[in-house]
Amino acid sequence: MTTLKHDDPEVWNAIQEEAKRQQETIDLIASENICSLAVQEAQGSLMTNKYAEGYVNKRWYAGCANVDTVEHLAVQRAKQIFGAEHANVQPNAGSQANMAVCFAVLKPGDRVLGMDLSHGGHLTHGFKKNFSGMMYEISHYGVKRETGCIDYDELRNIALAFKPKLIIAGASAYPRIIDFKKFRAVADEVGAYFMADIAHIAGLIAAGVHPSPVPFADFVTTTTHKTLRGPRGGLILCKSKYAKQIDAMVFPGIQGGPFMHSIAAKAVAFKEAMSEEFKKCQQQTVKNAQAMANEFVKKGYDIVSGGTDNHLFLVDLRNKNITGKEAQILLETVNIVLNRNTVPYDERGANEPSGIRIGTPTIASRGMDEKDSVKIAECIDKILSRPHNDQAKRDVKNIVKDLCAAYPLHESGACPSTK
Ligand code: PLP
């Protein structure tokens, strides 16, 4: 980065500070990860210079031979990883992937059934200030109060009464296996399209650690930067019969020229996702989340649904005399970064919710294991149970420092698996 350092020291300096922050922080944000240097190199390449409206071999611009090569690779690899009939790798983010599917099959005012945001759903699944909530009539299903797991009977009953045109499965804060087959059955019963948004669990699905929705869903959308460990971006998978509709809605429907540098980086990440090391890392991600959740249970914390099957879990702090926001702020002072989150049936709002969401993709990508995860859970407990104890803060800061030093990020972010 010598050119950047010379030409724009302010931006260069901020990037150096961010590299230091990432190196010295235990990152437990469930939607984040560390992509490889190879992904970063492709993302930072001069492919960003190229306009390429259209698709492979069907561009509106000249000079597209090389970007065609990378988009073709990205599409083929995405289809291979997930066993999908068709892939569109152009969505700039997960939200655009969801928007493209909605616009492709729905008219304004149509009915959509998605998971309640406060039970773990995503903004694009019907939040009133999101395009989805503004344009469509929305109904929500959620989780059972007693189990914290999706209430499939309620889902079916709501679908029978509401008659949605689209049913969305998928979540941003749901710790259990999602039964996509059950969603398909409900969609068939009411004649709805079925979209599975696997943004959070795509890496786990690619590695066979979570069942795939591809055999059951009409459309599967995802981000590429969470467990999938690629560059920031989106991806749509669908049956061949919807290919034309989806492609036309991504471009020219809702986007212009695709981000070819991101598509190149997606291709690299998809290649990595086929490796044995990636599979091991995804397995470790789940083991870490389970080890950490078990430790919290042992220490008397209330974990939504009692544990986790995936890369994240939710700690309900209502019996701990501390809010999720207070916990988030406090933990950041000792270099443990996570986010506050509502828990199902939360009496508090989204800004001062009662819970925290803990995810393990980043620590697994750094090489940390169950032993380290238990250590991190102990650190969090030490801080949350003694919020005003300066000695506890000093002790935890030292443990975090040692852990981060033991698992270096290597320059600006290579994972151990891609060294
Ligand atoms: N879908 C789910 C389930 C998500 O969790 C997210 C992001 O957190 C998105 C979609 C949207 O992704 P993006 O932030 O890339 O628009």
From TrEMBL:
A cellular-component GO term for this protein: cytosol
CDD domains: SHMT
Pathway(s) served: Amino-acid biosynthesis; glycine biosynthesis; glycine from L-serine: step 1/1; One-carbon metabolism; tetrahydrofolate interconversion
Sites bearing N6-(pyridoxal phosphate)lysine, chain numbering: K226
Cofactor(s), by name: pyridoxal 5'-phosphate
Top-tier EC class: transferase
Predominant place of localization: cytoplasm
UniProt catalytic activity: (6R)-5,10-methylene-5,6,7,8-tetrahydrofolate + glycine + H2O = (6S)-5,6,7,8-tetrahydrofolate + L-serine
PROSITE patterns listed in its UniProt record: SHMT
UniProt entry tagged with the keyword Ribonucleoprotein: no
Keywords tagged on the record: Amino-acid biosynthesis, Cytoplasm, Methyltransferase, One-carbon metabolism, Pyridoxal phosphate, Transferase
Keyword Amino-acid biosynthesis among record annotations: yes
SUPFAM superfamilies: PLP-dependent transferases
Binding locations of (6S)-5,6,7,8-tetrahydrofolate: L117, G121, H122, L123
Site (Plays an important role in substrate specificity): H225
Subunit structure: Homodimer.
Role played: Catalyzes the reversible interconversion of serine and glycine with tetrahydrofolate (THF) serving as the one-carbon carrier. This reaction serves as the major source of one-carbon groups required for the biosynthesis of purines, thymidylate, methionine, and other important biomolecules. Also exhibits THF-independent aldolase activity toward beta-hydroxyamino acids, producing glycine and aldehydes, via a retro-aldol mechanism.
Family listed: Belongs to the SHMT family.
Protein name as annotated: Serine hydroxymethyltransferase
Organism: Kuenenia stuttgartiensis
